[in-house]
Records
---
Amino acid sequence: MSFWRRNRKYWWIAGVTLGILCLCMGAVDGQFSIIWKKAVMICMECIGIG
Amino acid sequence: MKKLRLGVQLLFTIITNGYMYGFLNGKIYQGSLKYVCMPGLNCYSCPGAIASCPIGALQALLNQRGFQLPFGVLGFLFLFGSLLGRFVCGWLCPFGLVQDLLHKIPVFKKRKRLPFHHVLKYGKYVVLILFVGIGSAFLFGGFAKVPAFCKYICPSGTLFGALPLLTANESLRSQIGGLFFWKASLMLFILFLSVKCYRPFCQYLCPLGAIYGLFNRFSLVQIHWEKDKCVSCGACERACPVALSKMEISHSAECIRCGRCVEACPEKCLHFSSASAALKSAKDI
């Protein structure tokens, strides 16, 4: 526990690394195409119609 | 600092909603920038939006057939959260800007918090779990592809997405029903409340604020409090728009890093800094 507390100032680096890793995994999994397909069509739920 | 923050908020809102053609024709941007998420809550159905909303994208991935971890969006959230924490809320969120501007209207006696704040502040986590996360799958018909937060709650979608689109697009306008009136009423209630109370949506309902709040303790951008210099005058606590004590400033999940405490401190013992400097001072307390 004290190890984690002592090194808390470096957690953001771990967070950024994890973020980049997740982005890579998302890219490999093709998740950005899903996001793009959803984002380029008018989202009926978002505008309160669908 | 106030003017700088307002300038950054305005500039970021204009840049991330810079597709003017969409506003004129009631259509949305369909370019490749929509592969990426922007840091703040900004509906991707806003005609001007040039990137995706992280909460909308998160729901889009969670609502896919068969459960899969939404790595693509988690990556952006980890990245923005670890670097900025709720600095995003204070400086980069377009809906936060709208609430800030409404709160400047000089009517009503202003409040920093709503009654029962200590209970209500957990509302954003409830929204995150029930309407965005796994709970929405069970509450709204299995993995039945309902982006519950966007559909039933998101006032940003109504303000930035629905209103401009419905104004410019007649075929959409003809499809308005009860759901739209529910969302419009909720949006008006939140906007009206923003005139009285500081950022009620951010404090009590925003799932993105809930996520970034979890990063506040260790994000790169921190507010550094030099205890040795502090004369305990209370100026920072009076200036804090979300009524945090000086011990809570920066570390609390509620701190949006607006910098008003930094500006108010007569001894200059509060300032923006990196995580390592802030933690060094925390150890001295």
---
Amino acid sequence: MSWWPRSWRQFWSTLDGRTYHMMLAARPWIGWLAVGTMAVVFALVFWWVPLEAIQGYPQKIFYIHVPSAWIMYAAFGVVFASSILYLWKRTPLWDIFARCAAEVGFLFVTLALVTGMLWGKPIWGTYWTWDARLTSTLILWFIYGGYLLVRALARPDADVARLAAVVGIVGFLDVPIIHLSVLWWRTLHPEPVVMIIDDPGGGLPASMLITLLTSLVAVSLIFTWLWIQRVWQERTAENLALLEALLDRRERSAR
Amino acid sequence: MTWYLAAYAVFWAVLFGYLLGVASRQQRLVERAEALTRRLAEGGPGSESRP
């Protein structure tokens, strides 16, 4: 078993390299699957799933709002796990994983907030209310917005990466608060209707549940593809910078 | 119906906007790689050892 790592050090370096190469190999498949699944979601939402009796058309926002929120949780879960691994292993790849997941996660928090506001207006009569779910989600938006701003403005070095990893870990504490806020406090935002431990379907009609889960798959694939693409770009940019520096040195010494 | 269509339009507009940003980053990376290839070609392999 020559491929079997002989030490923890070798295990981690093998995992880093293998994870990255597996991600790159899967990238085109994930991209095409995302496009195909999203086309199915379109067909389901616009032609198949019935109108909800009370809310009517605005309820269809549910099929993009809820998956965006779930993917936001998953994205910041990736930031959390990658930040821990970066602080532990100090491998730059984990920092790139965290940075790119934060960027794509920030996109999905924005989408969850905006689609929620556009759903809130016809149903609640207002775009925004300072209830616990909305406020804690807005706090998450500011946490990761600040994280990305600092990373964009600061010179990329190990100190900034270490500090960002700490923010990525601490910022994730807001995710369970967001999820449980509707149970802990009295909120205008409804309680979870699916993925409840006692009743995973949440009493949703089969057509709505199928549409929601298909949309969740599609949005997950979009997130994964965007994340891999950004990781590849960051990694490539770092490699190019290294080559440019080497060439600069060679040209200076040749003069 | 307006709100539902508006939400889907915004969802796709934001997603495509981000995708365009990713594509333009990709384009910049390609240009950097091409510039690097040109510099390497101008220097040539083992150009330091040439007379």
---
Amino acid sequence: MPETPETNPARIVADADVLAADLLAGGAARETMDEIRDHSWVELVASDPLLADAEAVIAEVADPDLAAAWREEIEDLRVAVEHPEGDHPALASAYQGQAAHVLSYDENLRGAKASATLGSRLNVSVKTPEGFAALFDAESLYEAVEGGEYPGPDERTIE
Amino acid sequence: MNWADLFERAEPYETDVETIREALAARREGKLQGDEAEEEDDA
């Protein structure tokens, strides 16, 4: 892979386990995804293979119709990227989308595998949703990324 | 459908992260094995 010089701190990749947990388990995964849904300038980056993994998990653990409905909603939220077949969907989505954060419950992804895959090519942080939620500060991130005073959650807020 | 409706519809299927992790690991492991089998067939 060629060098990629910069990442965008407002671009986030949620691995398929976090995407499914947002829908089916709640907790920190829901809290983190709500931050993305609540702020249109925070972007969820995801490839088709990444969404396909999450959709398959939702179909397996819950229901295929629910999985299809989830796919329709997430398509409106995500920034689509493409990557070579066989690459890890979350890591490759981060690389292709210049995302600064990958959220995953996979301990391997948070350790050596991510380092070996990405190495010095991409300054990406792999965290659990719990870890990310504890650190996420919309106000300071807005000032850094968008500039100006943080306006609060915008039009993607769930009623 | 919006997200609020989707979460309401998902409530009967509520599960834990470990179950989700296992399902994803099985899918990715299966895909990985499938890819390796295809490569062997191609060779």
